[in-house]
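I'm curious: can you give me some protein's one-letter sequence along with its backbone structure tokens because I've never seen that pairing?
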Amino acid sequence: MGALLSSLRFEREAWIRFIFAIAGLILAFGAALFSTVTRQAGNVVATAIFASLALLLAGFVGLTTVPYLARRVAFERVRDVFDYDVTKEGLVYLGIIIVIGIAALNTGNNLLFIVVSAMLAAILVSGITSAGELRGLELKVGLPEHTFAGEAVLARITLRNTRRWLPAISINVVPPKRQKAGRRLRWQRDVFVWPPKAPPGKQWIRLPDITLTVVTALPPERSIFTGRVYFPYIPARLVVTRPVELRFERRGRYVQDAFGLSTRFPFSFLAKTRRVTLPVETRVPRSSPVLARAGKLSSGNDHAREVVVYPSVQPTADVLEILPMITGEFEVHVRGRGNDLYRIREYLPEDSARHVHWKASARTGSLKVREFTREDERKLRLVFDNPSANAVSASDYERGVTTAASLAWHFAGENTELTFAAPGYEGTSDIYDFLRYLALVSPRPAEDSAKSVLDELHLTDDYNVILTARPRGSIPTSLWSRSYFVFFGEPK
């Protein structure tokens, strides 16, 4: 009992609401007694005032405290079945019931009591009907396989009506209510043992038990779905699908393991919401970049509950500024390997002056360059040197991540054999493995003493494009001859 009371001290809000509820019910009971006394005294005005006050206090306690305390019952499976919200129409309807109820109490007219009973029964019928509708529905959610920050993609929400004869009317698919971070009381399974401090082999009694413990609720993760999708009519034993446009402004992981099926049918007194938990995520094969950029849906991913949003790959001003220089250095590095003349063509800004064909230029009056055949494939290695948390600002870091993603996407579409290197990166040369790494990467902790990826980078035949925030003087000199450096942030 002492442990239980010490745990309950953390739930101050529940205790405060409980105390106010008791005080409100005591005041309502006192007002009801005073209404009886004034009625016997023949004071109609005072009777109406005290009777109205008693009903209002009781209704206020019922609407604000009882649902809050009811959500703290022991069994999660019972507690999480439905959520209830009183609508504006429901408040007006309850107000009419209170007025007619006061008139029935003051006049003793049996017909008014019948009207009040019928109106209360309508609320009960509404609740039973909407609960039957929501329980007869199955939800499936199809999410795109590849998603980029800032780009709209299409998701698919499917509802199946499992009832044989009755349709489902006016259904909304909504995100579940998000719980605030903080300390909560939770019932958890436990084992009752006696003696309590005896070793496991010497305990006399071991019985299944439940205990009330305090758990810390973490802040909710970013949700995938924040809007609502309306299904006006779902015939019996049929499936209806609606497309949903999703847009994620920031890179990272978005998680959602539940949705809500909500309805106000038939009388709109209450908005009843049934929580639907999604199954475990299923893995699906990767699709082509064209389908991914077009927002096509992946097959077999109807139960996905996690979306990893890649950084934006749209070329930014920084990328458009450095891309010609990277391309020029890379082309010079690659073309210099060949010995056989391939063709003579017009001069481009990224061409090296040593390849200018002066005789052809003098004959035609415009600069011409020699282009040689390549003896091997174009090989490029993109290196992301993840800085520490105190090396660059948050905006510079995000700009560096976006630049790395844009460069990787650009060269993946070229005739280039592309590889990647980054701290902790264990993926393959597939572009989507690297984009997933960039989507989830964060600055290294300031106390992390591990070596930089540049200190352990082995030179190969690949040409390196290195994104780093290190000072120029601390970069190994062996990397300068075969690399192009992009400094995406000034040290603080």
